[in-house]
Amino acid sequence: MEKLSNLPGFSLRQLWYFVAAAEEGTISAAANRLHVSQSAVSLALGELERALKVQLCVRRKAHGITLTPSGTQVLQQARALLRQAEDLEETSAGDSADLAGRLALGCYLTLAPTVLPRLLHGFGARYPRVTIDFTEGTQDALQRLLLAGELDLAVLYDMEILPEIAQVPLYHRRPHVLLPADHRLAGEPEVALHDLADEPMVLLDAPPSSHHTLRLCTDAGVKPMVRHRTSSFETARALVGRGLGYAMLIQRPANDRTYEGLPVVSKSISELSGYAVSVLLAWPRHTRLTRRSAEFVAYCEEVFAGESS
């Protein structure tokens, strides 16, 4: 077992004050959040900088504080240390039934409506003292938040995942074509992208979905005629319902009508037979999961076991 050679020259309280100041952007806002004086926050920041022998932020009266490159790196590590300290306290206090605290969860935009309510309700019922705060966003934004320590976990598609991100697969989904109910191919069991090549496409333009859709078309030897772009899943469905084009999507809601009540139909894609996209749970590879995060990972694996389409 590796032995500790030196006692750290900084305290968890100093890290806590630094994280609050970095997140709030000003000393006064951090003091209000922590219910301490501004001088206490300033003193803690100064002591932390001296202990680490590095300048963490630039303080300007009219503009608050700005993190230095070193401060940005320390912020990420400080968040991780504080989470581990909280986890240690909870582990010592009792068993998993006593799990408590905050879990910061991210979720890709189009997955959120079908994934988040289920997970928040079920995990909340099992661990009522855990508070889950969620953030919706694109994959690149969510991965940045993970690596910055602002999120504990994120539900993502297995697309353009950074090497610094660890992951566990949850389930798989097959891409499909969405057509208006009166489309000439609506009665077919499956549809070929080549049969739609001369028709307008509604592109879900929320990275990496747009990149993924266009790549699949290219691999199938089809150059789609993109007529409309939208970052909204439901707007894409609504445009299809109005007959303004077809869409390639992965999520398949139980409801086969748009917000306007217009019918749409989902069709398998013949060129993509056997192809599926994984939905996964991700976290920073360099970060040890807290007990809350580990329990959430285990819960998600339990909930989605055997669930693919």
TrEMBL record:
**One Pfam family here:** HTH_1
Give any Gene Ontology cellular component: protein-DNA complex
Query: What InterPro entries would the database entry show?
Result: LysR_HTH_N (IPR000847), LysR_subst-bd (IPR005119), WH-like_DNA-bd_sf (IPR036388), WH_DNA-bd_sf (IPR036390)
Q: Name one GO molecular function term.
A: DNA-binding transcription factor activity
Q: Which PROSITE patterns did the record assign?
A: HTH_LYSR
Domain of life, source organism:
Bacteria
Q: Which Gene3D superfamilies match?
A: Periplasmic binding protein-like II, Winged helix-like DNA-binding domain superfamily/Winged helix DNA-binding domain
For this UniProt record, the keywords arranged alphabetically read as follows: DNA-binding, Transcription, Transcription regulation
Entry similarity comment: Belongs to the LysR transcriptional regulatory family.
Task: Tell me what this protein is called.
Answer: LysR family transcriptional regulator
Q: Which organism is it from?
A: Prauserella muralis
Q: Give the classification, highest ranks.
A: Bacteria, Bacillati, Actinomycetota, Actinomycetes, Pseudonocardiales
